[in-house]
Design brief:
This protein is of the alpha/beta class and 297 residues long. Helices cover 33% and strands 23% of the residues. It contains nine helices and nine strands. A six-stranded mixed beta sheet has the order 2-3-1-4-5-6, with helices on both faces. Strands 7-8-9 form a three-stranded mixed beta sheet. The chain is globular. The two termini are 38 Å apart.
Length: 297
């Protein structure tokens, strides 16, 4: 059988399960997951190579309406830019929901001349299942999707069906990446993602969106990895909240980060974290490029 290889963009509004889907498809946690929007800030590529095919997935930042600062505008533009030169797209929506931001995500896809699949995610939470039927009819009328697949990225419902459908529309081509590659992201980038995930999990309300993580040092030995990470905040008052009483919050963030990174690297991790003020970093193009959020296009 001839080899197949192609690019697939995973698109949708924030917090519909795009990162969970990518991690499931690739088989490794390479993209941060948290039950809050905007956990993903960069276009993270995951690579699935099986049998005769290689699928290169891009988990995009969620497309959202609010563009209050350069960071938000960059997230939107990077998500749209990820749609260039793809072979298929998967739009992810939450079962029984269709918001203005879902409509915006679909609008970005309508001009593409590639197959667009709709994954209706989180169907395992819908009872009774008959409630899905009118919803599926409603979304089917919105666009000529190649296929609409009710599924669940957490319960792995119909994800194999999605993979097969994607493989069937991929071009016949040689593989772009090595057979054992799972991502084109650097290890540093993934570690920063996993630390930022803990910020989202452990901090309340809007504060996580005023933070960023920069890996200052990454040194690996045969037995363990040492990581120095700086957490940027936009205002002085935010430092105390992240550090917490007697440093408890920062300690909790560090423990969660260490566990996630050890699971990813399969190696003991020693992590040191500092909180640093970088005023208005969300509007500083140099800092956004340093974090890998803004490309140099």
């Amino acid at each position: 059988m001839n080899k197949r290889c192609g690019y697939v963009a995973i698109v949708g509004r924030p917090n519909v399960g795009k990162s969970t889907l990518l991690n499931l498809l690739v088989g490794y946690k390479i993209s941060a997951i948290a039950n809050k929007p905007q956990t993903t800030r960069t276009n993270i590529r995951g690579i699935l190579t099986e049998d005769y095919y290689q699928l290169i997935f891009t988990d995009t930042p969620g497309i959202h309406q609010q563009s209050k600062n350069l960071l938000n505008m960059t997230l939107n533009s990077e998500a749209v830019a990820s749609l260039e030169s793809i072979d298929a797209a998967v739009m992810v929506v939450e079962a029984l929901k269709w918001t203005d931001e879902d409509e915006l995500a679909l609008k970005r896809l309508k001009h593409l001349n590639v197959p667009v699949f709709l994954l209706v995610n989180k169907v395992d939470r819908v009872t009774p299942k008959e409630r899905l039927f009118p919803y599926l009819e409603k979304v089917a009328a919105k666009y000529a999707f190649k296929e609409i697949i009710p599924g669940s990225a957490t319960s792995k419902i119909n994800i194999d069906q999605l993979t097969k459908a994607l493989v069937d529309v991929m071009p016949e081509d040689e593989w772009i990446h090595d057979e054992d590659s799972i991502t084109d992201q650097s290890v540093r980038s993934i570690c920063a993602e996993l630390i930022r995930e803990q910020l989202v999990v452990n901090l309340h309300q809007e504060l996580p969106y005023f933070t960023a993580v920069n890996i200052e040092r990454f040194e690996e030995t045969e037995k363990f990895v040492e990581i120095d990470a700086t957490i940027w905040v936009a205002r002085e008052s935010q430092k105390g909240i992240i550090i917490g009483k007697k440093g408890e919050t920062l300690k909790r963030i560090g423990t969660g980060s260490r566990h996630s990174i050890e699971e990813f690297l399969d190696k003991k991790v020693i992590i040191k974290q500092w909180v640093k003020l970088e005023e208005d970093w969300q509007n500083n193009p140099h800092l956004l490029q340093e974090l890998g959020i803004m490309s140099n296009r």
